[in-house]
Every structure is written in structure tokens, then in C-alpha cells.
Amino acid sequence: MQTIPFEKLTLRPHFLWNNQWLVLASGDFKAGHFNFMTVGWGSLGTMWSLPFAQVVVRPTRYTYEFMEKYETFTLCAFAREYRKKISLIGSTSGRQTDKVKASGLTPCEAKVVAAPVFAEAELQIECRKIYFSDLEPAHFLKGGIADNYKENDYHRIYFGEIVAITGAEKYLAAD
Fold first, then answer.
1. Which residue range(s) make up the domain with 51?
2. Domains of the chain: total
3. Distance (Å, whole) CA 111 – CA 125
4. Do 143 and 69 contact (CB within 8 A), yes or no?
5. What is the pLDDT of residues 103-157, one digit of tens each?
6. Between the CA of residue 120 and those of 1, 33, 106, 147, what are the distances in Å?
7. Residue 85 contacts by C-beta under 8 Å, 6 or more apart in sequence?
8. What is the pTM of this model?
9. For residues 38 and 23, is the Cβ–Cβ distance under 8 A?
10. Domain harbouring 137, CATH code
């Protein structure tokens, strides 16, 4: 694992979100107060001249409480061999389950932010929140989007400035 400047980060964004998934973590690792969940919707890019990661979290998710309380979050990508563990993380709640024990993953201290990263991750993206907004169903322009919200539990969108990236060589663009 090596430090990767945002300008040298190389990945297939749609594949990463839609097929590989990511683990979103928020909280304070040193205080032992954090939670994490699997995410498959989001984006990476540039906004306000800053590198950013954008994630969405429903208010019904336990991780939402941590995203609201803490200023930082992380996104971690894992090799295919971790797919079952990542699926488990997305289908169980930290309110009722010790997801660290259940998944067998190893949370650890991030380089810059308070939120944890995972030792097994092949890509670790550390972010500091810079903006949030709630999805407004009246703004959906494409039919069928509202079908994702049968319970009217519309996501809160969080933008985080990317402050550090660590990853395997495959995520580092060659000059």
C-alpha cells in the first residue's frame, strides 16, 4: 500500500460503486466509537476545485448517526475475495450486531482522519465533510428513481474533501 495523490488515482468509477462496492466508515477510531456500512451509490470527482467523494446514507441507517456527529468518513475498497464479508456488512445493523466480529475485518487508524480504515482494504480514501443536502423527490427527473424509496427514506448526500488516499499499485496511474 502506498500514498496516492488524487491526481494519480486511477480506477473504474462505475465498476467500483456498482460491482465492487465500498465500505463507508464514520466515527472516531481512537475513541472506539464508529460504525460502517456497505455503499454502492456515490461518486468521486472535483467540486469547488477540491477532490471529493460523495456518499448517500438513509436516515434509517445506524451509520447516519455517526455521519451526523463526526466530521470525517472513509471509503475502503476490497479485493473480490472479501465480497461475502462486504455483503454481510451491508445487510446487518451495527445497532444489533458487532460487525467487526461478524465480518472478521480489521478496523485501524487512518493516516489523517478520525474515522477508521480497514487493514484488508486495497484502497483507502479519507474524507472531511464539506457539504450535505437531502434528496428531494420533487427533483427526480427520471421515472423510476422514486421506486428506490418505498419507505420515503430519502438519502442524505454528503460531500467529503478527499484528504488522503492509500492504495495498492493498481490504483496509481503511471506517468
1. 2-171
2. 1
3. 10
4. no
5. 899 999 999 999 999 999 999 999 999 999 999 999 999 999 999 999 999 999 9
6. 10, 20, 7, 35
7. 78, 103, 104, 105
8. 0.96
9. yes
10. 2.30.110.10
